[in-house]
Here is the input.
Amino acid sequence: MKRFITKIVIFVVAAYLLALGLDYVISSGLANSLGHPHQAWREIRSGKYASDIVILGTSRALEHYDPYIIDSITGLKSYNLGVGGYGINVELMKYRYYCHYNTQPTYLIYDVDQLPLSIMSVPHQHQSEQFLPLFYDRTIRKDLMDVGYSWMDSYIPMARYWGYQIHSKRGIFEYFGLKHYCDYQSYRGHMPDPDPWDVSRLQFSDSIPSHVDDEAKKMFLNFVRESQESGVQLIFVTSPVYYRYVEMSPDWNRYIAWFDSIAQADNIPYHNYMNHSICRDSTLFNAGVHLAPQGTKLWSEILANDLVGKVL
Here is the structure.
């Protein structure tokens, strides 16, 4: 019996060490891969991207704000912290991570609409593989568990990679230099959407649930208060939305009115571009809420010029 128990213990320890080693290989490979979204987390962690302006929000922030253009016009340094497919809890997690490794920005542009006003669970959602290597960084581990990961994901090797076979394979190949993956490269966090205009994506956008709840609103208001207390100048911006999408989404204006009331109460500059002429040109969009690269370039120029002398 003693020999049997010994064999079981040896097997469990060996399996644990194997899983631990494999977890490290996959995580290291993914974390050091060249393309977005791992590239942005690596840049933030390097501490070399301290910026005067930080852009925060959903995929609309990620895709619409080009730091290269904004920097060239304002003469300041900016970084895009947009995170596609998630609500305010994940957006603020990324911002806290940025501030841990980089100095606090002077200005924070928050791209506001109904989409950030949600609290979402991360595991097995859009591009959630980007979060898996971050568990080796203790500064963000608690935040990761707050957005839906369990103690098993945090402390049992390979548990969080269940269901991520493709990305696990990528991590192994990257680690050993067998193959490098770079679907898209970003610039200072900015990742434009290269897809062409597709009317079906407009219809899909209309089906996206807003998930607005009181807890998300409370989180947003607390963030506004904390930012002002820390001396960060908040700037609310609603970037262009294709006009047909707004017509199909009657609640959109109600949420915009909510942000406007906060801006007025707290003396926060608010630039709303929903009625700008750019919103009626489908050649500048590839979906109802997403600008195409040529639209992003044009709008980034418009925004930067509007901010110079008025806010910055």
Notes: The domain at 2-307 is CATH 3.40.50.1110 (Rossmann fold).
